[in-house]
Amino acid sequence: MPSDYLWNNSNTDAPSAQLMAFLAGTDIEWDQHLMAYDIEGTLAHVFGLHHIGILDDAEYEAMSAALKQLHHNWKIGEFKLDQRYEDSHSAIEAYLQEQLGSLGQKVHTGRSRNDQVLTALRLYMRAQLQQIQQLSATVAEHSLDLAATEIKTAMPGHTHLQKAMPTTVGIWLAGFAEAMVDDLGLLNYIEQHLNSSPLGSAAGFGVPLPLARTEVASYMDFERVQVNPVYVQNSRGKFELLLLQSLHQIMLNIQRLCWDISVFSTQEFGYLRLAADFSTGSSIMPNKSNPDVIELMRGSMSIITADITQLQSLLALPSGYQRDLQLTKGPVIRSSRLLIQILQLLPGVLSALQFDRHRMQEAITTEMMLTDAAIQAAQSQSNFRQAYQQAKETGESSVSWQQSLDNRVSLGGAANPGLDLIRQRLAVTGSEMKKSIP
Ligand code: ARG
Known about the structure:
This protein is mostly helical. It has 16 helices and 6 strands. The chain is 60% helix and 5% strand. Strand 3 (196-197), helix 7 (213-219) and strand 4 (224-225) form a beta-alpha-beta unit. Bound molecules: arginine (ARG).
């Protein structure tokens, strides 16, 4: 029985259902996330075919109208991507043939599924990245606002989780904000790096057609063409890894913030509480109000790390397309969706923090001002090492926590937190972001 797969060669029998199930694996599930982008890439490809005269005006119009209709049907759930198809690529071609007969059979002229899937993934990654950029900017802005409100709210600062020197809630939060601003710059850079069109490289060797690669790239709003077809294939997975590594940087900020909230909200610290609508109860202990959301955000780091590890292990491959590369889809889709979910929730979590000002002030004990005593003494009568020794021996400081904070005058200190500077940097990196393409 001949198969009706795209690659069917009439001399071969259809592969067994068991074999097909293994080859397709969970691909059809991941393609649910890529389908709209695969249609967008196909629209660009038919635009290119028209540009070089392979499709005449009427054919081009019919083909793009059918693709737009498919996009619509897909969005409203009328067209379903299911196990009938090997992948989104086959589904699109099957739809075009069903709608347009033999014209539909022209769509794959000069294209391979290798550059097709790369294009869909590239468009997907760019869109996810742009959403993550926008959400990161919002989170940074929100944390800066909160930092400004709490800039004078005193809290004990820790090193080694032991009391160290007084600080403020605003300084703690602005630290998170500045990290997010810097990482937004990183995202901008990676967005630029990924913003190149793989379409037209076909199976990895080009095709004997004068494909309009530059025009096709502009059609998709890509900044440039990724030139060499071997490099195009070899960038599959490599670009995904780069994206995930930048998400990992953002998760490092979030993981730390979550750890802090988790520690500061314990009964032992008691510096803050998470409002009831962000807390969860226990099924057995009536007294409990738990910060599950913080813990799951923190734990999500393990998923991103695992996805990075999966990509790193996959990428030990020779040049060109290998089917192993299909397995790059899961990590990039799973991790980017997860981070988007977390970033969407974060402003709410930050607003739900209720600070116990009194408890924090009480927790600032005299020995936390010994550094101030030593520095003060060093300025007036002795050198720092002697003053340090003296403060250590007496254990006394005449500096209050308020004075300690007021004296922190260098840039970044409690009396000169530089919030405006961080805000300015956010405005610059924010304005460098590309606007999301619908
Ligand atoms: N599902 C495949 C992938 O993600 C599509 C490309 C198939 N190409 C091939 N030469 N078998 O890589």
